[in-house]
Amino acid sequence: MSTKILDRCETMGLRVTGQRRIVAEVLEAADDHPDVETIHARAAARDPGISVATVYRTVKLFEESGLLERREFGDGRARYEDAKRDHHDHLIDMQTGAVIEFVDPEIEALQERIARRLGYDLKGHRLELFGTKRN
Amino acid sequence: MSTKILDRCETMGLRVTGQRRIVAEVLEAADDHPDVETIHARAAARDPGISVATVYRTVKLFEESGLLERREFGDGRARYEDAKRDHHDHLIDMQTGAVIEFVDPEIEALQERIARRLGYDLKGHRLELFGTKRN
DNA sequence: ATATGTGCAAATGGTTTGCGTCAGC
DNA sequence: GCTGACGCAAACCATTTGCACATAT
């Protein structure tokens, strides 16, 4: 399967509209973690007529279809990124809002180990690990 | 310093009102992670006249004073817990909303190590670690 | 041709705030 | 008594939704 969001969109049998094409391409090109307002701004640069409501509907659809992943970093708005990127986690500076991406195999093991330690059944569920550290 | 929220509230020089006393006691007694609506419900059981606005103002004040810690688990509402409890982190089941508390010294080291690896200055900042795992 | 997507504006849900009144110190 | 807290209702902000019209297939 192609790595492009738009192609996966078609593969999923979703209708390909002008707006969806643009939202897909915006997120394809993004190397950050844009919120809906930002996605809309970037999309509007290509099609000034696109509405925020459509962006909201589109990212929600894409997320439910597994094309995008929704992130919530505690600032009240959702952020999105291409689901097909290599797996990674995030470290957020709550003072500055800076987002640090990283990959650490230990986290994966840790999550599974902790859940297992507590007798928790993992099948089909998504687990989010929230760790806090004050310095 | 006493371990009771109310005492720390006084120590901080905050005015002790009937409502603040109740909110402090509600969170003192809580062994879960109540959101504002829940805190208000529990508080209203003692003083039916207490308003949600006051609960919002109080938990915010307490958080800024370091008496409480605010948590956001991705469901759109903030949750609070006593800041003086032993340090721990959280694992959330995004399907059921189940909150699993755990302590794991590796997470601490991991957070510091990752930030350091990236040349990030930690001083005075609070870092949140967000890890995702699908099963 | 028909089912589905879009834009607009109104509605929602959590949280904040202005204002007049009340209470802690 | 003065400063700050409370209750109420309106305001806010991110997100969702109803409806009339437009468009992909």
Characterise the protein shown here.
The structure is a homodimer of 135-residue chains. Chain A has 2 domains: 5-82, Arc Repressor Mutant, subunit A (Orthogonal Bundle); 89-131, Dna Ligase, domain 1. Chain A is 40% helix and 21% strand. The first copy, chain A, is built from 5 helices and 5 strands; from the N terminus they run H-H-H-H-E-E-E-E-H-E. In chain A, the strands form 2 sheets. In chain A, strands 1-2 form a two-stranded antiparallel sheet. The longest helix of chain A is centred in the middle third of the chain and has 13 residues, at 52-64. Chain A is globular. Chain A starts with a helix and ends with a strand. The mean pLDDT of chain A is 92. Chains A and B meet through strand 1, strand 3, helix 5 and strand 5 of A and strand 1, strand 3, helix 5 and strand 5 of B. Chain A binds a DNA duplex (25 and 25 nucleotides) through helix 2 and helix 4. Chains A, B: It is found in: Cytoplasm. Chains A, B: Pfam families: FUR. Chains A, B: GO terms for molecular function: DNA-binding transcription factor activity; transcription cis-regulatory region binding; zinc ion binding.
Give a quick precis of the structure.
The model of chain A has no long low-confidence stretch (mean pLDDT about 90). Chain A has five helices and five strands. In chain A, strand 1 and strand 2 form a beta hairpin.
User: What sort of overall outline of chain A do the alpha carbons produce when their principal axes are compared?
Assistant: globular
Helix amount of chain A: 40-55%
Strand order of the largest sheet of chain A: 1-2
CATH top level of the largest domain in chain A is Mainly Alpha
CATH level 3 topology of the largest domain in chain A: Arc Repressor Mutant, subunit A
How many helices of chain A?
Answer: 5
Ranges of chain A where pLDDT stays below 50 over 5 or more residues in a row are none
Largest sheet of chain A: 2 strands, antiparallel
Query: How do the helices and strands follow one another from N- to C-terminus of chain A?
Result: HHHHEEEEHE
Largest interface: A-B, 41 and 41 residues
- The N- and C-terminal alpha carbons of chain A lie at a distance of 44 Å
Helix/strand-derived category of chain A reads: alpha+beta
On the 0 to 100 scale, the average pLDDT of chain A is: 92
The assigned CATH architecture of the largest domain in chain A is: Orthogonal Bundle
Subunit structure (chains A, B): Homodimer.
Protein name (chains A, B): Ferric uptake regulation protein
Pfam family, one (chains A, B): FUR
Binding site for Fe cation (chains A, B): 87, 89, 108, 125
